[in-house]
Amino acid sequence: MAAKLNIVAVGASITYGLKSVGGNGYRDDLFSALQKSGNQVHMVGTQKSGTMSQPFSEGYPGFTIDKVKAKITENWNKLQYPPNVIVTLVGTNDQIPGKNLACGSVDRFGGLLDQYLSLCPDCTIVASTLPPNGNAKENKNIDNYNTGITKLVADRQAKGQHILIVNGNKGLSLATDFSQDKTHPNNQGYGMIGSRFADQVQSAIDKGWIAAPQKFKKRDVWGARANLDFGS
Question: Any idea where the SGNH hydrolase-type esterase domain is (predicted)?
Fold first, then answer.
């Protein structure tokens, strides 16, 4: 089964694609995999990073969950096209030791999900757990956060919300799948996350969860309206 997808990727530096060769992060692997499955895909966002053909996202390096929440709220009506899918990987900056933000971060992530659904009640959300980290204290915080948001997503799905979880942690090796900072994946690690996002978006398509795209907005930041033939 295929669908017409307007996807916004929301998060911090990993969504932006920091430390990846080409600057695309996981987004290009997500985009390419969904296209290969026969879907028509638009990546939307006010931020531009990477060499991919549609390099748009809502990725903000250094941002915490609450800062991302404020930014996506501010920018929602500035997106090229109204999304019908939100993919999100966020929370790493809340887990940094010394910031004292790890406590309560699962609840703040829940508030972010609420805000997504307030902005777009018909959107399907695909959320990812956080990748591992080379700092032992931060990695412990990440493990706790990942356990919490996995349960949170399961509870919300059981209540009928169209939300799925991606395991962005399992199988990623700090030795082979990360850049030297041991926080941001390398292209191999990003590719694993992007493929997992694509699998879950495709699962949502197969479940019949994806709402039809809304009408185009007037402006077209790609300058290629003639080649974008759906959503009107």
Answer: 9-190
What's the rounded Cα separation, in Å, for the pair 131 and 49?
21
Which residues span the domain enclosing 179? 4-218
CATH of the domain at 151: 3.40.50.1110
The two three-digit tokens of residue 182, written as one number: 């041991």
Count helices and strands in the chain by DSSP H and E runs: 6, 7
Rg of the chain taking only CA atoms, in angstroms: 16
Question: DSSP per residue over 108-168, as a string?
Answer: HHHHHHHHHHHH-TT-EEEEEPPPP-SSHHHHHHHHHHHHHHHHHHHHHHHTT--EEEE-S
Q: Which helix (H) or strand (E) holds 186?
A: none
Question: What gap in Å lies between CA 72 and CA 118, rounded to an integer?
Answer: 12
For residue 166, is it within any domain? yes
In angstroms, the CA 148 to CA 127 distance is: 13
Q: Any idea what DSSP says for residue 80?
A: S
C-alpha distances in angstroms, 4 versus 42, 123, 168, 213? 8, 13, 25, 7
What is the count of structural domains for the chain?
A: 1
Q: Are strands 124-128 and 163-166 parallel, antiparallel or unpaired?
A: parallel
Q: Angle at CA 123, nearest 5°, toward 43 and 83? A: 25
Nearest CA to 7 out of 21, 23, 22, 35 is that of 35
CA angle 183, 188, 194 (to 5 degrees): 85
- Rounded to two decimals, what is the model's pTM? 0.93
Divide the 232 residues of the chain into consecutive groups of 10 and give the mean pLDDT of each group: 96 98 98 98 98 98 98 96 97 96 98 98 98 98 98 98 98 98 98 98 98 67 38 32
Taking the C-alpha atoms of residue 187 and residue 175, their distance in angstroms, rounded to an integer, is 13
